[in-house]
Backbone:
């Protein structure tokens, strides 16, 4: 993939039209949601231009099944654990980043308890969270499939720090699994953002350490539903078997149009797992929450 | 367990996830405070809050009732009433 050099999307006019159309249809909502990404199903389509200067249509479908009322949870005296499925697909034309992850994600929590109005309840001012996931990650064409198990530690301190620090989250993870070759050798030769640039060989084990940080800030939404937010994320992987490091940095400016639609301008450096492509990508997309 | 008691617990727990200075009351709508992308995977404020309330219900003889699909759009007192109905 040709390296660095962001360029402005050539389809800016089309995006502006999409933005205007969506804005014109904005409906009145009274809530001040900090983030609209709460629907069981969201669909995002827009235009992206990669550093390889090829126009690319970016398609992102993010299924986040919230099985309210039926997701599995087990309670203990001072801890609990729950699980929920998570499927994410990212693909696009030309050399846009692409990848698919399908995981059963969960979380084990360890906490102290307190009594509120006569009821015993977890004290969430500070607790220890251990995110767990078990599933598969693949390139968008299913030519390579990684079976991955992940266990992490996230100190949840947000309940005991000043307001401004509560939007920062940090975590450390260990990922282990196996990388299979699912496609034919001839079909693996890909270019640009689709290229697997990791040192992880096919048909071999995978063992990584990962450190992650998230930071976000959002304005309160107006009564018409409009809002503005900024999200920044950073992830670093260390390949414990091949002494390689990978990273992914993203910045997203989000214009919330109403409780069902938002418009993202995103800058991404590195594709992350499973390809660990090192290219850059600029993306604009309009998302609909269904 | 009464609806008023559960509302107290919900207000208490929401304060731990309030990073925007939202006034927490029985009229607070959950999606004003909670989100599902503010953490890592299933360790996000929406999932953690729900797990904590389920734990509270189970450990105070409140059972494990089904949650309304649109509970994030519900006020504190509305959701408490639904869960104890």
Residues:
């Amino acid at each position: 993939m040709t390296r660095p050099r962001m360029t402005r999307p050539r389809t800016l006019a089309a995006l502006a039209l999409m933005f205007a159309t969506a804005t014109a249809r904005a409906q009145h909502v009274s809530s001040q949601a900090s983030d609209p990404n709460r629907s069981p199903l969201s669909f995002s389509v827009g235009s992206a231009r990669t550093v390889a200067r090829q126009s690319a249509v970016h398609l992102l479908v993010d299924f986040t099944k919230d099985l309210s009322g039926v997701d599995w949870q087990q309670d203990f005296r001072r801890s609990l654990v729950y699980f929920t499925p998570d499927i994410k697909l990212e693909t696009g034309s030309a050399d846009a980043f692409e990848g698919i992850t399908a995981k059963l994600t969960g979380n084990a929590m360890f906490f102290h308890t307190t009594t509120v109005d006569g009821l015993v309840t977890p004290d969430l001012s500070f607790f220890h969270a251990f995110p767990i996931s078990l599933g598969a990650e693949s390139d968008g064409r299913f030519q390579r499939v990684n079976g991955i198990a992940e266990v992490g530690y996230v100190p949840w301190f947000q309940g005991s720090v000043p307001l401004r620090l509560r939007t920062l989250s940090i975590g450390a993870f260990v990922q282990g699994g196996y990388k299979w070759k699912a496609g034919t050798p001839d079909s693996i030769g890909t270019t640009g953002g689709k290229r697997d640039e990791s040192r992880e060989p096919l048909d071999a084990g995978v063992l990584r350490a990962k450190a992650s940080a998230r930071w976000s800030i959002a304005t309160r939404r107006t009564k018409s539903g409009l809002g503005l937010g900024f999200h920044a994320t950073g992830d670093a992987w260390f390949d414990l078997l091949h002494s390689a490091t990978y990273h992914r940095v993203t910045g997203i400016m989000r214009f919330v149009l109403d409780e069902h639609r938002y418009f993202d301008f995103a800058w991404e450096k590195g594709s992350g797992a499973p390809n660990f492509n090192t290219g850059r990508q600029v993306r604009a997309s309009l998302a609909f929450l269904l | 367990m009464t609806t008023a008691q559960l509302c107290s617990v919900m207000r208490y727990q929401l304060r731990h996830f309030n990073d925007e200075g939202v006034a927490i009351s029985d009229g607070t709508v959950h999606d004003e405070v909670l989100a599902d992308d503010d953490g890592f995977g299933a360790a996000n404020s929406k999932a953690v809050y729900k797990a904590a309330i389920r734990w509270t219900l189970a450990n105070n003889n409140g059972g494990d009732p089904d949650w309304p699909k649109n509970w994030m759009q519900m006020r504190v007192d509305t959701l408490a009433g639904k869960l104890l109905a």
Q: What stands out?
A: The mean pLDDT of chain B is 93. Chain B has one domain: 3-84.
